[in-house]
Amino acid sequence: MNKKDIYEHLANIYLDASTKRKNKKAQKYPDIFQNLFFISTLIIFVLIILLFNVSHKSSLLFTSLNGKKLISSELAVVLQPNIVKINFNFDPAKEEVYYINLNELDLARFRVLRFLVRKANYEDNIILKLEFTNASKEKSEAYFYNIPSYKWQEYKINLSDFKDISDWSKMSSLAFIIEESNVNKKKGIVYLDNVRFLR
Fold first, then answer.
1. Distance of alpha carbon 65 from alpha carbon 170, whole angstroms
2. Cα angle 148-153-157, degrees, rounded to a multiple of 5
3. pLDDT digit string (tens) for 14-46?
4. Contact 104, 172 (CB under 8 A)
5. pTM for the complete prediction?
6. How far does CA 148 lie from the centroid of its chain?
7. Which of 3, 51, 71, 194 has the fewest CB atoms within 10 Å around its CB?
């Protein structure tokens, strides 16, 4: 075997080895790309399903009362999600009312009213009156005592405690009332937040 044959033989071995290496790389990378494509497609599919479920639930969760977006579902109706300031001054008025128009809202399937309340001044002694009115003009009320000043107090009352309301299917209004006879000072502030009905 002369030198030329040896060189040709070595060149063939080298070319065969490099061709096999390229073929192995070509086989490896399509597998990796296929796996990445499959995983990314699966992740996108799962995200689409999650987004659809969240948007579907949120569309069930919101309804409108008086043209305002309110949270409404089988579990809760939020009437007032923002803080309300009731600023009373009994000179010459005898009462201050924060009135929520319920637009004949059906509350028959709800059991509980909850809301947060606090007063502005520690020295104030305030009794808060709550009054429901239905479409038949039936009225019923409840009173809330010991309203704190530095922290929010959550009050909870069963709708069944409003004995003078016989029909909850068409409710007209909910009113939070501060009367002159139920305060120790003529001026003051009461804050309300997160007024909601629960099943």
1. 14
2. 125
3. 555 555 555 555 555 566 767 777 777 778 877
4. yes
5. 0.61
6. 26
7. 3
